[in-house]
Amino acid sequence: MVGLETIMALGVVPRQPARTGRQDKVRVRQAPFSKPNADNKDARVGTGAFASLPRAESRAPSRGKASAAAPKGRQSAAGKSTPASVPKIKGYNPVAAERVAEILKRLDQLYPEVKCALTHANAWELLVATILSAQSTDVNVNRVTPELFRKYPTVEAFAALTPEQLEPDVRSTGFFRNKSKSVVGAAKKIVADFGGQVPDDMEKLLTLPGVARKTANVILGSWFGKAVGVVVDTHVHRISRRLELTTQNDPQKIEQALMKVIPQEKWILFSHQIIWHGRKLCIARKPKCAECSLENICHAADKTWSTVEMHQNAKA
Ligand code: SF4
Predict the structure, then answer these.
(1) How far, in Å, is the centroid of ligand 1 from the Cα of 267?
(2) Is the whole model's pTM more than 0.70, yes or no?
(3) Which of 26, 117, 161, 299 is positioned for an S-S bond with 290, CB 3.0–4.6 A?
(4) Is 134 left (phi over 0), alpha (psi -120 to 50) or beta?
């Protein structure tokens, strides 16, 4: 007969992580360079190109935060210690052309045809949607703008409003007073100074109320197809740091750093891809590293699962 103490003990003992490194609900991927099995050799994106990367990137998985019982000497995903099985990479340069090219290649495979997620039919609508998207989600903005553009179909219609008149229409996107001021102010300036046309020039765009480089880059890249800079929103900010493409924290400095390491013809697509990556996998609080095809070239300190050494400074 099982005693009461035994039953209670069984009830409170937490589940132990599997010795294989598997975590609940997490698909464990084969470590790079390990012998592919016949069923999954093509399952990972970009594995083949890895032959040219440092050998140290090919070790067995370190286990994530959830794996509190990681074997002694192994690295936890909190990145506090260097795992015994993953030596430091000598001569590692996170912005080496070869590594950046590999990141871009994998992003192309992951997100081949991404574009701006904000619904718009012209440059003005994109400008309004981008202003409204600050501190909000694209989904939220896309819920508001169809009715907004039906009610005020032209830039002149917006220019005829006062900010107070617009406030109820954009209230649900948050910070509605400032956003109303910016949208109406931008409309008035476009009508007064630019003949009702959104300018396709960075300097002119920056004269519009509520428009900084991020918004201007969205308009220039997504509508006019001009690669003048790199859009640095919250996703690009976070992921560029996690991927060690920059150590900067200020959006303008991040943009300058990215413009140095990303080829100009990729500036527009790179922003879209990283924004999608930030929404789908590399989310702020709990990135889905075990599902990410950039995993074995990513050394972010806040990874939730890792096959490679994690770098303390590589974090959002
Ligand atoms: S491995 Fe994790 S932290 Fe690195 S890019 Fe992928 S999801 Fe983000």
Answers:
(1) 20
(2) yes
(3) 26
(4) beta
